[in-house]
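task queued by scheduler; priority normal; single chain, no ligands, no partner chains; default sampling; output format set to structure tokens
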Amino acid sequence: MANHKDAIKRDKQNQKARLRNRHYRSLMRSRIKALREAVESGDKAAAQAQLQETVSVIQRVAQKGIIHQRQAARRVSRLSLAVNGVGKVE
């Protein structure tokens, strides 16, 4: 445990940031999960609508520095490919 005044303050700030980051990360994962379920159900219109919301959340999380920009781009790319593939026969 921190003993100095500035270390105690830094610890409090880190705790707040950790909880805030956890909230946004959880929100992002929930949106991704819902989008994947829409893709698996085969409803292209619902999947495209959810894609816009999900991409917005992912970019917001990346902008806040919770995930890396490249990770955000990779996630968006893979989700877009999944949504574009809905309804195609292989």
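post-processing summary
- The first helix runs from residue 5 to 41.
- The chain has a mean pLDDT of 94.
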